[in-house]
Write a structure and sequence with these properties.
The chain is built from 5 helices and no strands. By secondary structure, it is an all-alpha fold. The longest helix has 27 residues. It is globular, with a radius of gyration of 15 Å. The two termini are 24 Å apart.
């Protein structure tokens, strides 16, 4: 992949991360705790996707993304250990919020999920900038 094309794809994936984070904040502020978790997860998902693109990886599933992110960045110490936990927890909470008829997500849990997504996105943004990629922000 040409470097200009890679830079554009990384920037686009990271823009989606920012967009989803803004949606999560908006939904949470509207009082929809269970519904705020899904965009919080997708903010982290798209941020991880942007980081993996830098490595030449394009996972084909949520599990693949989670696994590759852990292998490429967390196990190697390039990004903090807590990011793997955040990604895993957000994925689990998203599934509860999206698929459960009676989602068991409190306002406090949703606030924590959004805050975790913010930390995840910020850490990946710092990494991308260190790698020479513009994130648009």
């Amino acid at each position: 992949m040409a470097s200009d094309e890679l830079a554009e794809r990384v920037k686009a994936a990271f823009a989606r991360a920012r967009q989803k984070l803004e949606v999560a904040r908006h939904v949470l502020a509207g009082g929809y705790a269970a519904d705020a978790v899904s965009p919080a997860y997708y903010a982290a998902f798209h941020a991880a996707e942007a980081a993996l693109l830098v490595e030449g990886d394009e996972p084909r599933s949520h599990e693949g993304l989670k696994s590759l992110f852990g292998l490429r960045f967390v196990k190697t110490g390039r990004l903090p250990d807590e990011l793997a936990s955040i990604l895993r927890e957000l994925k689990d909470e998203r599934q509860n919020g999206d698929y459960s008829v009676f989602p068991a997500i409190t306002a406090a849990e949703a606030q924590r999920a959004v805050a975790n997504a913010e930390r995840f996105v910020a850490a990946v943004e710092a990494f991308l900038r260190e790698q020479g990629f513009a994130t648009g922000g």
